[in-house]
Amino acid sequence: MDKNLVFMYVSSWAEHGGVPGLGQYTFDQQNGEIRFVRQISNKESFNGSYIDSRKNKLYVNNEVMHFMGAPCSSGRIFIYDLDPVSGEAKENMRLVTECPNPAYVTVDPTGMYLFEAHHSFPMGVAVHRRSADGTIETEVTYAEADLQVYSLNEAGNPVRLVENVNHGDETGKKEAHPHCAVFSPSGKLIAVADKGNGFLYLYSFDYNQKRLRLLSRTLTDTGNASPRYVVFHPEKPYLFVNHEASYDGKCYVTAFRYEEDGNVEKICIENALDQSLPVKKTTRLEQQGFVIDPEGRYLYTLINAADVIAVMAIDQESGALTRIQNLAVPGNRPRGLAISPNGRYIVSACLVGGELTSYEIAKDGTLSAACQGPVQPGASYISFYCPE
């Protein structure tokens, strides 16, 4: 294969007008061209994914409340073996998480553990019991909102669940939706954004005890702003959070300074949306995909309803943010956003129409459309694969 080409995998999600599926593509890092290779699946509703090039593994979330045959409310993680020459994905196993809506999957820096954040919902189940005096009492239990850790074998397959934390325990099990679990550049911290309660959690992982240790819990904005994704600066002690909810017609990104012991300090909250742009009334105004360039100079966040990619410059001395561009995204309901391995291009994916579009990143961080790729209806999440 041409040295400029890398493989790209696109999940399709059967929600909000999307359809199920998983597709394989090549991406040309020289000109941004996207070419279809094969359809891997068109049956399952897939969303977040992660590729471990060290073990040639693709982990894809089957983000559903319940799948046919499941004994309880649960999603799954599909694990594929990737051929380093052809990029062909062969299904290896399916992991039942026994928790609804697995939303974000990643592997720790050692390659020994898989982390999964579940975007659960406050589903109540009534349990009726007869008391000693003969009266019937009702107890309502709620689905858990888990952050799970699985041990992996040498091949990268999950072996067993070794740790889980339920944020719902803090909120009566009603409003906790952990949406991501992101490792810091040092690998010592795990950042979790919880859309339900509005907090940013920082954890460490004790490899001897196989336990997560909570270091800090910080409100990212207003309590109902629904923090969605976290990205870390590659070198500076900054991290950034985007939000699914908006208010006053604005879409805010929050910048934090952090320390390795988990302490955080809020730097600023900046609106990513140009208020002069038209906004669709048929779609909720919300942020979706969120990435940072490899040098940590610019942030890119997708905004639904306005259908734009917002570009924000990062002040390297203070971590403060400045909006510098809102670029229109072709398609309906933009959701997925990924930056190419060489840092020269960004690719967006639209859920309803399935449009895949690449954009070249200029030296000043601004974007210009490069190539319109094939259409994959339901396109929701993008992962790149560069065999080592």
Automatic annotation (TrEMBL):
InterPro entries documented for this protein: Cycloisomerase_2, Haem_d1_sf, Lactonase_7-beta_prop, WD40/YVTN_repeat-like_dom_sf
Pfam families reported in the protein's UniProt record: Lactonase
UniProt-listed SUPFAM superfamilies: C-terminal (heme d1) domain of cytochrome cd1-nitrite reductase
Gene Ontology MF annotations: 6-phosphogluconolactonase activity
Family of this protein: Belongs to the cycloisomerase 2 family.
Protein name: 6-phosphogluconolactonase
Organism: Faecalicatena orotica
Lineage: Bacteria, Bacillati, Bacillota, Clostridia, Lachnospirales
